[in-house]
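Internal tracking record. Fields below are filled automatically when a chain is submitted to the structure queue. Please do not edit lines marked as system-generated. If the sequence contains nonstandard residues, flag them in the REMARKS field before resubmitting.
Queue: standard
Priority: normal
Entity type: single polypeptide chain
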Amino acid sequence: MNGHDLILQFLASAIASGGFAVIFKIPPPSLLVAALTGAAGWMAYLLVLPNSGTIMATFIASAMVSFVAEVSSRRLKTPATTIAVPGIIPLVPGMRVYRSMEYFLNGDNLNGIDEAAITLLISGAIAFGLAIVSSAYRLRKKH
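SYSTEM-GENERATED OUTPUT FOLLOWS
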């Protein structure tokens, strides 16, 4: 992927995260941070993907989103979920959900199950990445 493509990917993911931040009525000071958090997570995904595969890249990207959200939330005095939820939007496997449903509706159950399984693994990687970093951050804060 060349530099021009990376810039486009960065902008598209920032717009997607920012758009969802607007839909979720995120306060204006957190809006830009949420958009940039989503873009940073997507860039992490793209950098890790060639060497690790989709599930590991999603885990690392969601951990990055969680870390940025935790750090930013302290500075902005807002809950970390305010920044993390729009930030994970680019990582959500919406196309895979659509494709698995399409396979099932067309009677191709084997491919449907395959897509659904990958979708669940990606969703688990998102949840696990968010939970691990968030938990570690809170444990560190208590000590």
